[in-house]
Amino acid sequence: MLGVAREAWEAAGYEVRGAALSGIAAENLEAGSGIASRTIASLEHGLGQGRDLLTSRDVLVIDEAGMVGTRQLERVLSHAAEAGAKVVLVGDICQLQSIEAGAAFRSIHDRHGGAEIGDILRQHEDWQRDATRDLATGRTGNALRAYRSRGSVHEAQTREQARGDLIDRWDRDRQAAPERSRIVLTHTNGEVRALNEAARERMRAAGDLGDEVRVTVERGARSFASGDRVMFLQNERGLGVKNGTLGTIEQVSTRPCPCVPMTGGMSPSTSRTTIGSTTAMLRPFTRRRA
Fold first, then answer.
1. Model-level pTM greater than 0.90?
2. Which of 26, 109, 181, 212 is the most exposed place for a label (fewest CB within 10 A)?
């Protein structure tokens, strides 16, 4: 939808810009719509330096607007109002809210309304679309019953059994369809750590991990090996990664080296980074919207 809107705005002579709270969200916005996008922090920094100022011929699209704090959104909207620019807020008032104080997007929607998309594209089966609508409108019980009736809800008597059953199914699925993606979600960092370790044990038993190197990072001592999947937790322009970018470690060594992109015979998408005193060669890739 935003791609079509961009084409219409540009045909009318407007310049369309995009912004989002996180680098990953901005990257996804640009990939999905063709709108050149950046983080809101980067936008504000440029505005503060007198660069890339908005004008009356600009359309600024802010994606995942519900996650933007009230003060930050107010600053951007005030600048746009002074410049006479058009701002389009895109988001879902029922999804994740802002970490900072306030719920500006929800308040704006409550007072002024907005255009809504009712068509569901990510789910292909009618019953899945119905379940998604139920989840979005608070009818969680209906959605769970729909998935349970099709064998997609699995119960366990204890937390330990639930972990074991989950890892069993994850391991069977990844070996049966290695080309497909999958995700495990849980509530606490402790659970994440336990499930990650259990998953790595299965990968090691299957010969999918190389030799491990133990290093101390910001979150404590961790082991890394070729074949590990990792997530970057901050933006790093030198590596071409953003907070939330996923990658696969192709090689890890205890020999430190500068953090520089790999060139020459290496794939241009492969880069080298230093973790503690350990050098890891990573192949980053970014999550894309379905």
1. no
2. 181
How many domains does the structure of the chain reveal? 4
In a domain, 235, yes or no: yes
Taking the CB of residue 80, how many other CB atoms lie within 10 A of it? 20
Residues in the chain with pLDDT values less than 50: 258-270, 274, 276-281, 284-290
**117, part of any domain:** no
| 213 close to 238: Cβ distance less than 8 angstroms | no
Let me know whether 140 and 180 are in one domain: no
Q: Write the pLDDT tens digit of every residue in 58-96.
A: 999 999 998 898 999 999 999 999 999 999 999 888 776
CA-wise closest residue to 159 among 125, 122, 198: 198
> Is the domain of 7 the same as that of 59?
yes
Phi, psi of 21 (to 5 degrees): -65, -40
Biggest CA–CA distance in the chain, Å, is 62
The conformation of residue 99, written as its DSSP 8-state character, comes to S
Domain residues for 254? 209-290
